[in-house]
Design a protein that fits this description.
This protein has 19 helices and 20 strands. With 570 residues, it is an alpha/beta fold. Strands 3, 4, 6, 7, 11, 12, 13, 14, 15 and 16 form a 10-stranded mixed beta sheet that branches. The protein has a 4-stranded antiparallel beta sheet with strand order 18-19-1-20. The chain has a two-stranded parallel ribbon with strand order 2-17. A hairpin with a 3-residue loop joins strand 18 and strand 19. Helix 14 packs antiparallel against helix 15. The chain starts with a helix and ends in a 25-residue tail after the last helix.
Length: 570
Amino acid sequence: MPKRVILIVLVALLIGLPAVVLLRPDRGVPEGAPTEDAMAAELGTQVMRNLARGHVPGRSGEVMLVPKPHSFLIGEWDLTTLGTSTPTMSTSHPNPWNYLARVPIIVAGDEWAPRGVTIEDPVDISWIAPTYARWLGLPEEGYASPPLPGLHDEPAPKVIFTVVIDGGGWNALQYHPYAWPNLKDLMDRGTTYVNAHIGSAPSITGALHATFGTGVYPDVHGIPGNQMRGEDGKNTDTWRDEADPRYLEVPTVSELWDEANGNKPLIATISYEGWHLGMIGHGAQREGGDKDLAALWNPEENEWWINEEYYELPDVLETPDISFLQTKELELDERDGLKDGSWFGHLPAQLRENLTRPGTPAFVELTGNAVADMVGGGPFGEDRLTDLVWIEMKMPDYAGHAWNMTSPEEEDVLKETDRQIGRFVDVLDDKVGRDNYVFLVSADHGQQPLPDLYGGWRINSKELQRDIEARFGNVLEKITPVDIYVDRDAMEEEGVSSADIARFVGTYTLGDNIPEGAEGAERVPEGRFDELLFAGAFSTDYLASLYEDPEIERFGEGRYPEGDLTIGDG
C-alpha cells in the first residue's frame, strides 16, 4: 500500500476515534451513583422493613424497583397524550407508599367485636389469620403477628366470612366517600382498624392474598407476587396459570383448621384468578388436605372453573347465567344518569372485552349472585364446626386499572361492590343467624391515581430496559412493574452485579426515560427532565441482608411523607 494511502487511513482513524468514543454509551455504574444504604435511608425504616418482608430470594427478581411516589412502571406509552383531556389511563400499583399500603380492617360480629369501636394501633393484614386461630382454638405460634387487639375471645362462630376488596384501600374509599354505606354500617356494628396496612411490599395481589390466608409475609410463605422464578429458573405465574398451589410454602389457617377436624369444616372461596387461592391454601395437594370449594373466573369461556385435581367447584356454579350478565351490561346505560346506549361513554361491545368486563357493576352483581347461591344454598353454619369463607371482589381493582381510581366508573363499581357486601350480610343473617358469624372486610392494596394530578410519571419500562442494556450489555431477562429479572450467565460474562444495576437505577431521570425521537416529547415540561424517577432500587443480596438486621431502625423516618404507613385517622 502506498505511503500516501497509509497516511490518509491513519488520519481518518485519528479523526474518527474521538467520534466513536463520544458516541459510545457510558458503561458501568455512573460516577456518584447512590449506594443501596443511601437509598434505604431515603426510604426509611417502615418502607425498608416491608420491602425485606416482601422479597423472596431465588423467586423475586434480582433488583426490586421503588419508583418515587405517584410514579409507576408501564410499557411503552403515548407521550402525545400529556396535558390533554385524554391522558393514558393505564396504571400499575406494586409500590410501598402509604396511599397504596393503608387498608381498612373491619370486624363485625356482636359476640367477637365491640360495636362502633375505632382502634388506632398500627396493625397489618398478617394479624388476621392468628385472630382466626385464637377463635378456633388453634395454636397461635408460627404467625408473623399476634391476633388483632380489642376483640373478644368468645367460642368460635359458626362462620367466619372474609371479604377482600381488591384495590379497596383507604385512598380509593376516601376518594369516593359516598360509595360505601354498607361498609359504614359494618363499622358501626363492629371494630375498625384505621391504621392497618399490608405489612410487606410490593403492594401486589398474589403476595398479599397469601398473607391474608397464612398470617406470614412473602419471605416466609414464598409467594412474592403474581410472577416469580419457578423451579426451572424461568419466569412463571405464581399459580402456574392453572390454580396450582405448589409454590405456597406454608399452610393457611383455614387448612390447619380443616385438617384438625378431619376435613369436615367447609372451606370455600369465590375469587377471580389463581393469585387469590393463597387465602384458602393447597386443597388436596397438601398431605392430609381435601378438595376445598373454590371458583375462579375463566374470561375466555365465560364460566367459573377450578383445578379439580386440588379443589372442587361448587355445584351451583357449574352453569353460570351469562344471559344475566349480558342483560346487566345493557342496563349499565341507565346507571350513569344519561340514557345514550353507553355507560360513561363505553359501549356494550367494549364492556364485554376481556380486559374490561370484570371492571363493571354488572360483573360485580354476577359475582354477588355466585356468593349468594353458594352460601345460601350450601350447608354453611349447619354444624358445630366453624366454616371459613373467603370472598375476593376483584372488580374495583379492574376498574381502577381500566379507567383510574379517580373516575366515575370506579365510583360506580365501588357502589355495587358495597351493595353486594350488604347482600352478603343479609344472606348470612338468614342462613346462619345474626349472632352466629364474624364478618371481616379488608383490602389487598390501594390504587394509583393519575400521576398528572400528583406530579408523578409513567415510567416506560421498555426504555428503561434499553438504557440498562446500553450501559451494562444484554444482561436482562425481563422488567416487571415490581422488579428486574437478570440473565445470570450474561451478568457474569459482563462482570456486572445486581447492585450495579440498582445503583444505576438510582441515577435514572425522567429525561433518560424519553425514547429518542419520541413523538410528543416536546409536551414534557423542560424543567422536569432532570427529575429522578426512582426513590430506590435494591439487589436481592441487599434485601436478604435486612431479614434479621437488628439495626434496621437506623434508616429512620426517611425523606418521603408517603413512607409513613400509619398516618391519618382513616
